[in-house]
Fold FAD:protein FMN transferase.
Amino acid sequence: MNKNTFVIFLYISFLFISCGQVKTSESFTAMNTYMTVSIYSSSSKKGKNVCREIQEKVCELEGILSTTLTDSDVYQLNHNKILDAPVNPELSELLDFSKQMYLRTGGAFNPALYPVIREWGFTTEEYKVPSPERVQELLLNTDFSKVECNTAGLLLSDRMELDFGAVGKGYAADKAVEILKSNGIKSALLDFGGNIQAVGKKPDGSLWRVGIKNPWEGGAAAALSVESKAVVTSGGYERYFEKDGVRYIHIFDPKTGCPSNSNLESVTIVCESGKYADALSTALFVMGKDDAIDFYKANTDFDFVLVTKERELIYSAGLRGFIEPLTDFSRVECTADSFEK
């Protein structure tokens, strides 16, 4: 067999393998959002079984983490201030991770803000602007480091309540990836309410293309090409209310107890872990442009895209060659051009 014939043989073999992958897509609602699982497997039957397994796992996690389902572990903890041992291992895992992120981000990521967020009406959509005195009163019980876990179980202070909404979908995506890998799935794309998780590459060997929403005109502001990565964006342009000409977004600054007044429109995090990307996207948004870049300088185990209110697009060095602006920006900058790692 000559060289050209061998190359053609490999190409035909690749096409045969790619064409042998059957796409299965299933959608469902969980964790108060719409989720879609798209996978490529050896058969439609296998694909449907794996999709069903993922849906069951996500719903199981919702039954642990929900703040509104009365039988959930978190609901019981919030209302009784104690969750007897043995604590669910997945709740314990997420709690440990959240504590690490709380400390690592200087409190910018904080799952103990639930009473504050509820006071502003974001849990019921009955929006209001509470008095500064009321906000300060509620902030007294938001020190997440004081959550106790001992042989008796989980313990909260008298007025503390938890909400893992800023990390729950990312955690669920990580568990879904575990299921995909255990079933031998090498190509899949998950969309958990805007939290994207890419597994491997597309069946044809190309990278997955993921859009970053344009906060001004709609559509996509930029596109990322990724392989085996989580892509999670936090922005204040979708959930907000306005009062007296002021816009109040759903992302809160734990220091002030008020909706964040960040100079960012959105933060997108790209890394392997869904829960890490989920937590970081919120924390860096709260930090604002300069502090977010400083955090990245000290923690380069992820990549980021910042879209600022001045219509800047700033991205980390690891995304060079994998990001494409799709709208007009006042400035496009890679952080590698402004500092040395």
